[in-house]
Amino acid sequence: CGLGLAMGLYDYQVLKFLPLLILVYSFYEWTCSKNKPRFLRNNFFLWTAFIIFSSPVLYHLLQEHGLTPRERFLIAFPRIYQQHGFSGVWDHLLETLLAFNRQGEPWGFSNIPRQRLLDDVTGTLWIFGFLYALFLYKERKAFYPLVGFLVFFLPAFLSMDSCNASRLIGTLPFVFLLAAATLRMLYQKMLSFWPRPIPTFLILLLLFLSLCQNTWDYFGVQAKNPDCWRVLGGAEDTWVANSVRHHSKDYNCSLCQKFYGNFQISFLDYDLFSQISSWKLPRSLYLTGKDPRKGVCLYFEEGQWGALKLFQTLYPGGTTELFKDLNGNPIAGSYAIPVPALDAGLTHLSQHPFAHGLKGEYYQSTEEKGKPRVVQTEPILNFTFRNDRPFVDFPPLAVHWSGTLETPKERLYEWTVL
Predict the structure, then answer these.
(1) Do residues 112 and 163 make contact, with C-beta atoms less than 8 angstroms apart?
(2) 34 bridge partner residues
(3) Is 277 helix (H, G, I), strand (E, B) or coil?
(4) pTM of the model
(5) Which of 132, 168, 232, 374 is the most interior residue, by most CB within 10 Å?
(6) DSSP state of 389
(7) 6: exposed, middle or buried (C-beta count within 10 Å: 0-12, 13-18, 19+)?
């Protein structure tokens, strides 16, 4: 436990509760031990080793008063009690408990949005196992899974995300153990009524039904759910990585800010990393590549279609490719500009410099006061990612855009602002 903590093998909030669980187990074993001096001597050695190994992490936690900034932001208490009283605490508890058998979190990162964590068979068995363990809490076979569940129930209950699957994952080994205890008890009861083949068949049938439901949910429902399919941008990241590998022979690949440095793309294209660059407006209007013999292939994320249209206008003759989600909506795209089209576009820009756009004044403050940190002409306002702006060390940030509009003809003009 100490080595695991010292090596950073469990930095997430859930597993910080593991030492607490081991401490409770140690106290329980001490009460059951027939040779308490020897037990205390052995445990003293183990806990001393734990403190020595994990002392840097424990010192850091002490400096942070036991909570990191992220954990302070997530902690639910005493906020819930102050705002809603005991009824709010009760509702928060129910919401956490019902995540197993009724409704889970709305985010598709760990599970189908709003889907319970357990299948029908396991969910039913663990309820009976939990109630059965409450009656036999003094026995080791009941105490271990019961306390394990309650300790690892705390990370979700104590956080604002009360039914977060990632914070409840520590409970699952104990949930399965309680469900298995019910299954074992059920099997023993049936043996007193029927010959062995019948109870064996019924238990295997229950397990088969559980397997079928989990298989269907995982491969049939979750895999086709757009929220799960797109979580953390995995689908489009993989598409971009594969496209870069395909185009890198003939094009200098330049990624938008969201994709550049992305860990998944960097991993899949690790041998091409030195050849990949990034683009950002307005500095990238005049496209240049690391290899002048190649064209340029630009990559765009969802919502950057204004920037894509700008490059298509400035460098006509390229090839556009879009990657779509399960509902047919484009979520990533590329624009491959061959050498002739690139040269023609650069020649045109050198003869007619691009001067259209709004004057953008960027202040590293909450108000437009003093000298702006950056002043630049914006050819288009199409920000989709935090690094699209000229400097990334914000907040605070304030921007003032100004400009004039030429209306060559007297007519009715309609404006749309998104």
Answers:
(1) no
(2) none
(3) strand
(4) 0.72
(5) 168
(6) S
(7) middle
